[in-house]
Amino acid sequence: METLALYESHDYMPGHSQIYREWLKANPEPRLEWDMWFAMSLIGMTVGIVGFMMHETVEVITHNKWTRAFYHIQFMRPSAAGSGIPTLISFLNGTNIPQIFTLDVLMVKFVSCCFAVASGLPVGPEGPMIHLGSLVGAGISQFQSDLLNYKLPYFERFRNPESSTNCASSGSIINVETSMELITHTCRRGMFIQMHHMTWTNSTFSEGAISLIGAASFFGGVSRLTISLTVIMMEVTNEIEFLLPMMSTVMMAKCIGDFFTRPFDHALIKQRCIPFLSQEPSISLADHTKVDLDLFSAADIMTRDPVVIPVVDSVSHYARFLVENKHGGFPVITKPPEGLSESLFFGVITR
Q: What stretches pass through the bilayer (predicted)?
């Protein structure tokens, strides 16, 4: 009441004074209120200018926001852009993608993810956390960094492609549970049965249950995840009684999605022009018939006159050689020794 008493009413009507009545007697005929029309026009024009300036200011701020947001990604480390899942999938598939498991990628990915989530954008840390987990796994297994110029004498036997791939895969799997705060294998035996009998007394499905199953099936149709998605949804919601219907809907969504199109991450891989080998590789012939690649061998694509590279030559010749030839690997030869007419094969070098 004390706060309400601080306010007074405002009188919108003009004062009915003696001066006002004399003015009415002097002006009995209605007159054109051109000044009112001019004032309204001026108000409308000014409001339009203010609105235009606000719109342009928002556009400038938004442009600067996105410019500053992708600056440290586009110029400092382009490989840290996006969620990193398509890149990780391609790496685990066998494609050699440079500069994806470095310390600067880890820092840029961490900072950009924090900024993106804290800015209020409709994004989450789950995708980048998978890439961050693989970065940590690959980094710890190597114990070396070109950015900081150090190489510790630990885990030297892990410094090979196989161990690096295994550690990166393990780190990405662990970070899935970290990002979603999952509690796999932390519930006591029989606890789910006790919770079921104490909580659910009616067997009728609710709207929330149908929404949960629908969300899982939609996610499964987009990502084509099956077992991992079911486990994630079970751990997030703690609804073990929906395991069977959720598995059925997720599997059905995956089958229908595979029939019509490729997964979302695979579409991003194709957009980035990254080679990807499917689970059952095949090729399409001129008559649109598919042939299994297991029917072919390396001899089917080899040539009798390969493009070779000498073991010793000038840098300019090597640079011109790489520009003229788009192969991924080249046989290395040396000059024929005395008494021989053919060159010696040293090995194979990649680009």
A: 36-55
